[in-house]
Amino acid sequence: MNDLATWLEEGYPQSVRTAYLILGNRLDAEDAVQEAFLRAWKFRDSLSKETSIKPWLYRVVVNTCNSKLRQEIPHRDRRESDDDLSDTPAADDMPSRLAICDGVLRALSDLPPHLRVVVVLRYYADLSEREIAVAIGRKPGTVKSRLNEARRRLSQHPDLQPDISHRGELKEISG
Asked: Domain of 14: which CATH number?
């Protein structure tokens, strides 16, 4: 169980970012992660020695986020969008990366929660499809199909399309 305590100490910032990507609100993410960590600690003895801690803890975080999405968040006004993670330090805080991140966050927020969760766990938390299946309590085939659907939707999202506004200008100049 020492590994669990270490993960709880070291995993908080990544868990908050993961929850934020699922919930779209920093305060909700912090609440969800605190609640998830309390649940994880309370039920830490139910984890068998063969079970990997990382997917199990993500399952607790994801379940807590899903609970918030179902029960709490729809029953209140959306909070202002000024609580984003832009003031949270990142490893490489370059302006161009921030612009791309804004588009990705908008595209993620437009995905339905069941697709958003698998994308966040795969590409942000770096879980394998099998670990995601454990984390969300679904079969690996379900994870694979959700990832494919999410990729398809993201590839068509306007915020993730290349900027082609200058192509018309090139035709006028060359024509």
From this structure: 1.20.140.160
